Amino acid sequence: KQQKDESSLKLYLHLGPSGDCWIGRSIFAAKHNQPGYVKSVLLQPPAGAQQGRTTESLGERLVEFLQEHPKLAQTIFDTQRIPVEVWHQVLRDYKDDD
Which of 43, 45, 81, 92 has its CA 20 to 30 Å from the CA of residue 24? Predict the structure, then answer.
């Protein structure tokens, strides 16, 4: 039951135009920023990616990867989608650390 509760919580990747990114449980909104300054993209790892990993741990790995590749973060900011190729690289890096 605990697994189901965790998986029902949505997790978002928040991105700024400079490539800054972080994860959070709700869509980002700040009154002091212009609308659209920070974009929130729902984290949806590809099928089979979980393999006992939480969406949060995959999201943390994604943030680390994007901090090393800010141009990809800017692409995600512009398109508001996470390319499957990025997920594959994150998963490869994850396996290398196991």
Answer: 92
> What band does 4 get if pLDDT is binned at 50, 70 and 90?
very low
Cβ count near 72 (within 10 Å): 19
Higher-confidence residue of 35 and 24: namely 24
Task: Enter the pTM of the model.
Answer: 0.79
Angstrom distances, CA of residue 83 to CA of 4, 26, 33, 53, 79? 26, 21, 26, 19, 9
**12 sits in which H/E element:** strand 12-15
The percentage of residues in the chain with a pLDDT greater than 90, rounded to a whole number, is 46
Rounded Cα distance between 66 and 98, Å, is: 20
The dihedrals phi and psi of 41, each to the nearest 5 degrees, come to -120, 125
CA atoms within 13 A on the CB side of 92: 7
pLDDT value for 53: 82
